[in-house]
What we know:
Helix content is 65%, strand content 4%. The protein has a two-stranded antiparallel sheet. The protein is elongated and about 50 Å long. By secondary structure, the protein is mainly alpha-helical.
Amino acid sequence: MTPSRTLLASGLALALAGTVSAQQRAGDAMPESYRQVQLRAQELQRRSLLAMVDSMPERLYRDRVTPIQRDFAQQIAHAAGTVPFIVVRFMGVPAPQLPDTAASLNSRAGLRGYVNAVYDWAANVLRTQSAADRAATVNLFGTEMPRWQVWDELHQHTFWTTGQVVANFRKHGMAPPGFGFF
């Protein structure tokens, strides 16, 4: 991503965070139309993860930049897999039936299947979440927030985690896939 696109993306994220924080402080309910923004964010996450999966040669899926970090496939699975972990725990929905990561981490088809299964499930949960459930407050690791905001926190986590795999591409002299906005 070019420095100007990075700056634009950072500015957009800060603007969104400022809007959300001001709205939350005011005690206002998030408008129903915001659900569509969150669904688009989920699809952006899916597309970004799949672009990473498709751009990395399979032979490097289990490669690490340093011995203590997750390998490429584990990091992609972590970025995607945190979505159901958090949603199940803090939204009180049943856990999805996801492909076994032991099989998913070793092939492009397996990793794509895992990412798609996560985001298919998450989109369904988000689409069907009632307005009352979205407004209910939860304690997300020490921070009180409405459940609708948990989706935004997940979005931040996914992109922070996905950004870490850029080092896997750089280690092998490759450029990561381009970033696409909504």
